[in-house]
Amino acid sequence: MRNLIVAIDGLGKSVLRAVEEMGSILILFVSVVNWMLRPPIKLRLIFKQMEFVGVKSLFVVVLTGTFTGMVMALQGYYGFRMFSAESMVGSTVALGMTRELGPVLTALMVTARAGSAMAAELGTMRVTEQIDALYAMSANPIKYLIVPRVIAGVVMLPLLTIVADFVGILGGYFVGVPVLGINAGAFVNNITMLVGLDDIYNGLVKAACFGFILSLFSCYKGFSMTGGAEGVGKATTEAVVLSSISILVSDYFLTAIMF
Predict the structure, then answer these.
(1) Could you tell me which of 244, 257, 147 has the C-alpha nearest to residue 205?
(2) Residue 245 lies in a domain
(3) What pLDDT, on a 0 to 100 scale, did the predictor assign at position 81?
(4) What's this model's pTM, rounded to 2 decimal places?
C-alpha cells in the first residue's frame, strides 16, 4: 500500500511539473509574439542569428539531404524493381523529400547544431548574470535575446529545407540514373508529373513551424535554467530532446491536416 501511495505521489508531481512547464512555455510564447510586434526591430541581431542558424548549418543540411536522397533512391529501386516500376523512383524520392524528410531532417539537424547552442548560450548568460544585467538596464531580455533567434528559426528553416530538397533529389538522380541505370527521361518526367507546388509549399510551411518550435523551446530551456554550470549541460540536453520530440509529434498533426 505504501509503495502504491509513493508511486501515485511521484506520478502526481511529474504531471504537475509537466503542466507547469507547459504553462511557462505558453507564457514565453505570448511574450515573444508581443515583443516581436513592437518596434524597434533589431535587424542587426536578427541577421546575426540568421547567419548562425542558416549559413552555419548549410554544410550539415547539404550532407544530410544528399545522402538521404541517395539512400531513398537505392531502397526504392530494389522495391520497385519487383514490379518493373523503376521509373517511379524519381517521384518517390521527390515526394519523400519535399513532403516529409526534407523539413523533418533539416529541423532535427538544426536542432542538434543551433538549438543546442541557443540553450547553452542563454544558459551561460543566466549563470553569469548577464540576463539580470539586462533587466537592471531596463532592457527586456526577451526582445534582445529570444525574439531574434525565433525570427531566424522561422525564416531560415524553409530556406534550408529548399536546399535539402534540391540536393536530396539531385543525390537520388545520381544514384538512380548513372549507378542503377534508370532512364533519365522517365526519372525526371515522373517528378514533374507527380510532384506539385502544393507538396513543396506544405513542406515549407512545416519547416517554418519546426523552426519556431526548435528556437522557442531551445531558448526557453536556456532562459529558465537553474543550477550553475551543471544546469547549462542539463538545459542543453533537455532542449534538444524536447525540440526533437515536439518536431516529430507536430509533423504527424501537420501531415494529417495538410495531406
Answers:
(1) 257
(2) yes
(3) 81
(4) 0.90
